[in-house]
Amino acid sequence: MGRELRWSGRQQPAAQAEQIDWNSYSVSTDLALEAHQIFSPEHGGAIPGVKTSSEELDGITVTRLVIEDAVGSKIMGKMEGNYLTFEVPGLRYKDPDLQKRVAEKLAEELKRFVSLPEQATVLVIGLGNRKVTPDSLGPLVCDNLFVTRHLFDHMPELVEQGGYRPVAAVAPGVLGITGVETSEIVHGIVKKIKPDLVIAVDALAARSLERVNTTIQVADVGISPGAGVGNKRKGLNKKTLGVPVVAIGVPTVVDAVTISSDAMDLIVQRLEQDVPGNGMTKLFSSFDEGEKKQLIFELLQPLGQNLMVTPKEVDTFVEDLAVVLANGLNVALHDAIKMEDASLFTH
């Protein structure tokens, strides 16, 4: 970095900072839309090999993002494929009408996103740990799904009128509880029931606090369970499972590095407003990303370094979002279920 850095009351040579693996403390995101917003300014607002389009309707912003080639994939750090993002800030205010509109829009877009024959079998995987509230989204969605695969074999009279698709749902738990990799459990189920499509639902990590519990991402590239909190497991995708995998996720946490970084920027802005040209503003403004990460690292080290943070109302948010996602999936997967009746199938 070219100079010695001083904070926490001690001196640390810049050369020592270069020995730290900063990737462990990088400000990352599971959301392709956020990655695009982070890296597009470096490329004049348009990343090569990436296309985006957005539309807004009654408080819901839908963005379609396509990573077309390896160039765009490398820049964004995301796999090639299609990403669909719903931004709904109003989801934080427990508005039943808005939740219904979001579920309806999700169902509408899912039908376009995934084209399946009427009798195609769908397996929904609820990833996460139901005992950890911010990570319980996937299991809660499974709890609220209308599963029908067994009915086709044991009670065909209930589905013989048509409009229903064979749907199964499983919440396999996490490695720390089961002792078995999630991918191994899912692979075994896929091998046995041979679904035409796997839908994986999981909680994600966001870069911005504003997106926590307000954003839904749908992607056709599969998912790596635990990636958002730096705990990557073997991915669930077409290559590993042999069938198409659609991932649906909602960010429920943001890491402490993000909060610290944002706080530093806000402090600089506020100081410059109150006392223009002050020395503290000049000092903080002179930090490059490496120096900022070193400062954050030293501050977080006594607290366990990389903390994950979630709002105190996360239990209510997750329960509401699980119902929204389940309603959207129920309507998208079963033509016989209409949105006005979707609540009959959720708990």
UniProtKB/TrEMBL annotation:
Gene behind this protein: gpr
Pfam families the record matches: Peptidase_A25
Entry PTM: Autoproteolytically processed. The inactive tetrameric zymogen termed p46 autoprocesses to a smaller form termed p41, which is active only during spore germination.
Proregion span(s): 1-30
Species the sequence originates in: Tumebacillus lipolyticus
An example Gene Ontology molecular-function term: hydrolase activity
Signal peptide positions on this chain: none
Catalytic activity: Endopeptidase action with P4 Glu or Asp, P1 preferably Glu > Asp, P1' hydrophobic and P2' Ala
Family per record: Belongs to the peptidase A25 family.
Function: Initiates the rapid degradation of small, acid-soluble proteins during spore germination.
NCBIfam families (UniProt xref): GPR
Protein name: Germination protease
Source organism, top-level taxon: Bacteria
Organismal lineage: Bacteria, Bacillati, Bacillota, Bacilli, Bacillales
Subunit-level organization: Homotetramer.
Protein's UniProt keywords contain ATP-binding: no
Cross-referenced InterPro entries: Pept_HybD-like_dom_sf, Peptidase_A25
